[in-house]
């Protein structure tokens, strides 16, 4: 895993240098440096504004004893976005801006959730929702009683033909 991270970081740094050289060739070195400084300053401003909002929301949720939920994820994305905006580089600035702005933050959150959920082992993933033809139209039963066993009615359907143990050996 460490080798992949190093290779990925190296490729990202190389891509940032290539984009920086291309932009410098297009608008000039001075304007490119000025744009880099401007995006870093914008990153500080957005980080301060959005970070304050995220921390206030987390504080309010803690005071009301509610689970942090999406507010904690937003605070993490705001921190990541601020870091990417403050560091020099135009590609990081674009990704950082997507993390910092509330209208586009859901895109990054959805992409990260999809990537992380695909890498989790099956037993650590969230609940599985199954649709049953026999149960359609039946109202939900509500929460189970304490100490009552959880019973799930269903049937097993095999896609492959069953193998006889004596013949399969």
TrEMBL record:
Keywords: Membrane, Transmembrane, Transmembrane helix. Residues 155-169 have a biased composition (Basic and acidic residues). The chain crosses the membrane at residues 7-27, 33-50, 71-91. Residues 132-169 are annotated as: Disordered. One of its GO terms (cellular component) is membrane. The keyword Mitochondrion does not apply. It holds the Pfam family FxsA. This is UPF0716 protein FxsA. It comes from Geodermatophilus sabuli. The lineage of its organism: Bacteria, Bacillati, Actinomycetota, Actinomycetes, Geodermatophilales.
